[in-house]
Amino acid sequence: MMMQKWRRSGDFIRFGCKSLSNLRSKENSMSRSVSGFVNRSESTKGKIFEPNAGNYHNTELDHPCLGRNLGIMQQYKCFGSSSASKVQRNFLFSTAYVIINVGLMNKVLAFDEVSGVLVCEAGCILENLATFLDTKGFVMPLDLGAKGSCHIGGNVSTNAGGLRLIRYGSLHGTVLGLEAVTANGNVLDMLGTLRKDNTGYDLKHLFIGSEGSLGIVTKVSILTQPKMSSVNLAFIACKDFLSCQKLLVEAKRNLGEILSAFEFLDNNSMDLVLNHLDGVRNPVSSPENFYILIETTGSGETYDREKLEAFLLKSLEKGLVSDGVIAQDINQASSFWRIRE
């Protein structure tokens, strides 16, 4: 029998909804500030509340938004743009709603250097988690262009794939547990840290990729990986899409255990990058229809680089690759990733 711990919760929702509903009863405008919260920011149609860590499971009261026709939407920072505006478009026809921002819930709660399991709050920025793990000799299994602004809770809620999915898989495989607040204010505690867990229904998978439709992710436990000493990156040009597909198959077969990323972009994407980003240039000598970034990560610098070079030479002989270059240092590698990200 599977056991789940349920707790009544909702302080940060309860006070916000009461304040908002009081405003709504007096006037249609949502321009007044709502007291009772550490941080708050105004939006055009709703209020954005930012709870402190832990202040959402102290109440036994029923959720006040129920029956008041108040929508609830979590806000995770993503891609450097205003999440609030995206929420407003989602609730374009709503009379009023509450936006919950988890940005202040940004603490690392635990890290096990034996198992590599990280437990953190949903408001942690992905890049900050990567920096923390780097000091411990580990890496996040998830990496993406918006890592400097996106929250891990948002990554989980959208099941973000990231740049190294080919190596570490999706979040369905790396997220070991989570905590979520449901719409009625209950906290569902599924914050397990055991990788091999066959104790029953694995309900966390319902929340991964649910985009907040079932509840707000507030905590995450995720399996991280040891940091490898050897990283190589190649930027490759291909004439047609079929060659890109064949190159992927060959990369899986020939690079195998060291293949960590295989990223694709076409010439239209390259033109946009070259025209709108300062200091960016095409790494290959002549333009092509398609481009591929191949990254390898392993423990033997010489062996890994020789293996990558042999693979590229073989691909060139087969006509799968028309041109390519291997990054010689971290600066050149960063310039390659800047094009893709």
TrEMBL record:
**Record field: transmembrane:** none
Against InterPro entries, the record matches this protein to: FAD-bd_oxidored_4_C, FAD-bd_PCMH, FAD-bd_PCMH-like_sf, FAD-bd_PCMH_sub2, FAD-linked_Oxase-like_C, FAD-oxidored/transferase_4, Oxid_FAD_bind_N
Q: Name one GO molecular function term.
A: (R)-2-hydroxyglutarate dehydrogenase activity
Zinc as a keyword of this entry, yes or no, is: no
Record's keyword annotation contains Nucleotide-binding? no
Domain named FAD-binding PCMH-type: residues:
49-227
* Alphabetic keyword roster: FAD, Flavoprotein, Oxidoreductase
GO cellular component, alphabetical, reads: mitochondrion
Q: Which cofactor does it need?
A: FAD
Its EC number(s)? 1.1.99.39
Q: Could you identify this protein by its name?
A: D-2-hydroxyglutarate dehydrogenase
Source species: Eutrema salsugineum
Classification from the root reads: Eukaryota, Viridiplantae, Streptophyta, Embryophyta, Tracheophyta
